[in-house]
Each structure stands twice: as C-alpha cells, then as structure tokens.
Amino acid sequence: MPRRLWLSVVVPVALALLTSFAVYRMLLTHTRSLQQVSDTRVIESDLNALMRVVVDAETGERGFIITGNESFLTPYTTSTRDFGTVLSRLRRQLPEQGAVLSEIDALFESWRREVAEVAIRARRRTPVGLASSLDAASDAFSAARAVELRVRLTGDQTLLTRLTSFLDESERALTRAQELDHTGQRRAALQSAQAALERYRSQLGPDLGANAAARDETAPALRDALMALAREATATEAQIAQLIQTGAGKERIDRIRLLVDRTLGEAERRLERDLLLSDLSSRRAQTLALVGPLFAAFISFYATLQGQRRLKASVHQLAAVAKEVASGQLGKRLTLAPGDDLGGLAADFNRMAESLAERERQTTLLVELSSALQTCLTAEEAYRVSERYAASLFAGLSGTLYVLRASRNLMACVAHWGEPHEGGALPPEACWAFRRGRAQQTGRGRAEMPCAHLPTPAPAEALCLPLISQDETLGVLSLYTPSAHDARLGDHTVQRVASAVAEALALTLSNLKLRERLRQQSVRDPLTGLFNRRHLEEALELELHRAERRREPLSVVMFDVDHFKRFNDTYGHDAGDAVLRSVSALVTRHIRAGDLPCRFGGEEFLLVQPGLGAPHAWERAESLRAAVQALALEHAGRALGRVSISVGVATYPDHAASAEALVRAADEALYRAKRAGRNRTVLAALEGGAPPVAALPEART
To answer: Are 678 and 562 in contact (CB under 8 A)?
Structure first.
C-alpha cells in the first residue's frame, strides 16, 4: 500500500475510530454514573420513607398506649402495612445490603409482635382509667364497710352520712368502670358487683342491726370481687408499664434507626463517588472530542460520499416497511440486497415484526376467549371453549384442565388438547401448583419436583398454574412439551399467555359457581330444600304455555299436613320443622324426574306434573298420601307417631285454563278433602259437576 494512501486514509480512519470509541466509552461511563446517581437518590428517598414509617408506627402505638384513643392506631396500622412495601423496594435496589435489611425487618417484626401488639392488646383489655376506677370502687366500699362495723359497735348514728357517701363513691366508680370497659370482657363481673352493691345498700336501714347477717354474707364476696377486678386491671397496667420501662421497644427502634442511618451514609458516599466519576468522564470526553474532530469529520464525509446512495435507499425501504407494519399490516417484511450495511437491522426488524404478529394473534385469541367465557352459561360450556382456544393459543404444546369437584377431595380432568390423555380424576395433592398456590415449572435443569399427574415418561418441560379466584383454588391448568426439541415453556410470552388464560378461567368458573349458588338460593326454600313460591309462579306459567303449545295435560297437586298446628303445639316447632323436612324428602323421592315440587307456604305443598292427566295425577297423589301416612317420624330420639295429608288435584285444561285458576281449583279440592274428613285425595270438580272423592279412614296419630 502506498505511504500516502496509508497516511491519508488508514491512519485518519483508525484514529477517528479510536477517538469515537473512547468518547463513546467515556460518555457511556458518564451516563451510567448519572443513572447510578439517580438510583442512589431513589434509595435515599426510600430509606427516609422507611424511617418515617417506623417512627409513625412507634408514635401511633405510643399514643394509643398513653391515651387509649383508637384513632392513634390508624398511623400504626398504615405504617406496619407500608413497611413491607418500602422494604421490598429496598431489597430490589440494594441486594448487597440484604443482611442489613433482613436485620431491620426482623427488628421491626420483633418490635411489632413482642412489644407493640402485646401493649395494644393489654391497653384494649384495660382502658386508661379502668384500674383507678376499680381501685376507687374497692377502697370506697372497704371504707363504707368499716364505717358500718364501727356504727354497729359504737351505735354512733352520726357516721351514717359518711357510710352513704362512701357507698355513693363506690357506685360512681363502678359505673365509671363499666363505661370504660369497651371490650365487654369484664361486663359480667362488673354487673355482678354492681348488683351486689345495690343488694348491700338495700339491706341497710335505720337500724343497722337488722339484716346484719345478710350484709355480713354479701360484703366479703363483694369486697373480694372488687379487689380481684382491681388487681387484674392493675396487673395489666403494670404489664404495660413494664413494657415501657424495660426499653425493649426503644432498643429495637434505635437499632433500626442506626442501621438505616448507616445504610443512608453508605448511599451518600456512593452518590459522591458517582458524581465525581461522572464529572471525570465528562471532562475526558470533552478533551477527546476537541482533539479528534477533524479526523472524525473527514471519516464521516468520506463514508457519506461512498455509501450515501445505498444507505439512503435502504433507509427509505426500511421506513416504508415500518410504516406499513405500523398501520397494521403485520405480514410485511424487509428484504435488502446481500451485503447491505443494514442487513443486521433488517433481520432484527423482521424478527420484531414476527413477534408483533404473534402477539397480535395471541391478544386477539385472548380477547375472543375472554368474550366467549363471559357468555358461557354452564361450566361445561366453559370447558369446551377453553379446550378449543387453548389448542390455538398453545400450538405445539399439550395440556389439561383440572377442576376441583364439589367434594374438594378430587380434581376431574374436564378438558385436554395435544397428545391423547387418559383423563380421569386425581387428588389435589398430586399437583405442586395446587399445593403451593403458585405456578410450578419443571424440566430443563430445574430443581422443582414434577407433578404426579403429568404423563409418563415425564415431558421435557411442564408448567402448572393454579386457577385462583377470591383466594379460592378452583383447579389447575397444566401445559407440557412432548419432546425437548419443542421445549419453549421458558418463553416469557408463553408464560404470560398461560397466566392470562388461567386468570380468565378462574374468574369465569368462580362467576359461574357464584351465579349457580345465587340462583339456588333465590328459588329454594331453606327449610325443606324444595322450590319456593316465587319460583313456582314463574315455572308454572312456563309449563302451562308449554302444555298448551304441545296440547298436553298438566296437573297440579296441592296438599298440606293434617292437624299441623296441633302437632306443633304438642311436640314443639323443632319437631314440626322435622316433619316438614321428612315429608319434603319423601316427596322428592316419590315424584318423577320432570315434576316440580314446591313449598307453597307453611305446611302447604304443591306439585306441578307436566304431561300427566287427571286420572294418573290422582293415582300418584293417592300413592303419595299413602306413603306419607306410612312414614314413621322421629325427632331427637323421640317417636312422633304418624301424620297424614289432605290432597287436592286439578288438571289443565279439564279444570282451569290459567295458572291462577289451576292453583285455585287444586286449593278448593284440598279444602273439600279437609271438610270430608282429611287424609284423602280429592279431584277438582268439573264445571257444574260433583267432585269425585277417594278416601281412607282418618289416620290416628
């Protein structure tokens, strides 16, 4: 290479590159130092916030101990809650200070548990002034008792005024103690002492010799009770005083303050060091920038002349494709000529576009899944929806969905995709994610134990996520890769999508469970478990319309328990409730699958029997009446004898054309059965005709 070419091209270029690299490194150091300065200022702010939290907690606790005012506990409660949040931030910011922060955490927790909570419980148990009130009540009664004994010995009637004064003082102190006993822990003892004091006063009269024996019996017990209450309250006050005097809490708080100040000092020293380093790097960068500008300008000018056209074309192409991708055409890709200077950037851009397209697809599927789950009316629909969408969201992965049964001792496999799965049920303990209440990932060198429900041989990778809603674990979503070649569960995107699917499923299953529970509560009678009258009115109208549309009969059977009021009066209401439950259970076993049993009110019941004509409805009602009569009843180990029912039957369209008229016809038939002697089944009368009656001799209870 000619010397001129070497000197004019290679050396300036090399010098410019070295200068630029040095300036870049110095500026990078300067930027890093500035970032460290910013981080250090945040750390100082959090350390000061931590100390404020500790001081606020101590101040609130001390204010409550001294005054007994609950409002002082507000800063204490808020500070103990905020302490963990601030400390967690500091752990992330100062990993090298983990031991110091752990010591601060232990000191604060020790102070809260062993000092603050103990003192707060003690102060709540013994409010301010309670011990002095009880002491005053005890002392005043002892003084009154002494005056009474003196009067009885000396006969000095002038002391009666002092006796009355002492008793009044004791009564006022007791009343004050009752007002201070906010928790009610001593309510019974204080009320007993108050009653004893009133009884003692009632036993006093002009002649202290009268009722002396009764007072001698009442006074020691009352004195002992007052002294016991006073001692107990005084002991609690002494416990609080001891906690304060020992200085255990102050030692812990002072130690926390010392550790925080020490850590703050280290942060300030690091801040000064970072500022000095930043200033030094800035000065060096300025010096280098002054020395090499000519060489850098020359290199820049030369490179611009040589590659302006090619670079300009590549940049324009990149901008056009980027604009198309930004407008939503995520399928567009950047293609440059081989050896182009922007080839690496084009590859990165294409990977970014592919990632955006995949994320867009996953987001769309997640939105569709969420929308579909929200419209599901049953859990089975939700299982099928989740199975369909999971196969698309987790392409190349196999998975299962387990849901905890109502018995809470088994989880059933309700959905699966990917490789064939045996299904079945398994105990919740078989899944580590269910046990621990958080995601469990195994495989690829991880130390976590694999779950027992995974297929055999064990998959290359597995991820189990618990379905948690409202602090209740409803099941487990399990994903696994069939082979090591397909292993990608460590990808953050897959984990994010899996977490979103698990959250959506948990929320949907929880809502469906709540919806079903609310529906059952709204339509069921709490005593008998049968449908209530509100549900009957809605269901009967629907069944009547269905019968009219299908041109089928529909029968209504109304019955009530004979002499139920007399039964209640004889055996009590609990036994009456037991009878209603037993009859309801018998009705549930006796009816057909499509019949609707309801409690109409009190001891009255009503059955809706779709598709059943009058003769068959009467036969089934008569069979039910006989079964109730044969029912042997017991309650609390006591035989209740037998009961009978009177039954009225009415059929659409024979006896009525509307729901209200049909129920009224059955009710009238029921009352005809009662007037005919009870314990019988009566079919409603046709218009202008007499009601047919089938009866047995009245059962004897």
So the answer is: yes
Name the token pair of 151: 């009067």
Which candidate, 251, 236, 259, places its Cα nearest to that of 58?
251
The answer to whether 609 and 617 have CB atoms below 8 angstroms apart is: yes
Cα distance between residue 488 and residue 460, in whole Å: 10
Number of C-beta neighbours around residue 354 at 10 A: 13
User: At 127, is the secondary structure helix, strand, or coil?
Assistant: coil
∠ CA 165-167-168, rounded to 5°: 65
Instruction: Find the mean pLDDT for residues 598-618.
Output: 94
Rounded Cα gap, residues 572 and 558, in angstroms: 25
Say if residues 580 and 602 touch (Cβ distance below 8 Å).
no
The pLDDT tens digits of the residues spanning 559-577 come to: 999 999 988 888 888 999 9
Give the angle subtended at the CA of 117 by the CAs of 115 and 121, to the nearest 5°: 115
- Which of these ranges, 178-187, 467-476, 680-689, has the smallest mean pLDDT? 178-187
List domains and CATH numbers for the chain. 28-126+248-274 (1.20.1440), 130-246 (1.20.120), 381-513 (3.30.450.40), 524-695 (3.30.70.270)
Q: How many CA atoms lie within 13 A of 74 on its CB side?
A: 4
- The number of beta carbons lying within 10 Å of the beta carbon of residue 350 is 16
Length of the chain as a residue count: 701
The one-letter amino acid at 548: E
Q: Cβ of 107: how many Cβ atoms within 10 Å?
A: 18
DSSP letter for 116, please.
Answer: I
Orientation angle between helical segments 293-326 and 248-291, nearest 10 degrees: 110
- The number of beta carbons lying within 10 Å of the beta carbon of residue 535 is 17
- How far apart are the C-alpha atoms of 656 and 669, rounded to whole Å? 13
**Neighbouring C-beta atoms of residue 533, cutoff 10 Å:** 13
> What six digits make up the tokens of 123?
């102060």
Report CA dihedral (598, 599, 604, 605) to the nearest 10 degrees. 20
**Residue 426: which H helix or E strand, with range?**
strand 425-426
pLDDT, tens digit, 9 for 90 and up, residues 160-198: 788 888 888 888 888 887 777 766 777 788 888 888 888
Rg of the Cα trace of the chain? 43
Average pLDDT in the chain:
80
Say which residue the tokens 């963990």 belong to: 84
CA distance 267 to 478: 45
The torsion angles phi and psi of 639, rounded to 5 degrees, stand at -70, 135
Dihedral of the CA atoms 99, 104, 110, 111 (nearest 10)?
A: 170
Residue 4 confidence (pLDDT)? 44
Q: How many angstroms separate the CA atoms of 74 and 79, rounded?
A: 8
Sheet holding 472-481, edge to edge: 425-426, 411-417, 398-404, 472-481, 461-469, 440-443
Three-state SS across 486-498?
A: HCCCCCHHHHHHH
Average pLDDT estimate for 405-421: 81
pTM over 0.70: no
Q: What is the mean pLDDT of residues 274-288?
A: 74
Q: Cα torsion for 250, 251, 256, 257, to the nearest 10°?
A: 70
Residues 634 and 581: their CA atoms lie apart, in Å, by 12
Residue of 506, 612, 606 whose CA lies nearest to 560: 606
- Residue 663 one-letter amino acid: V
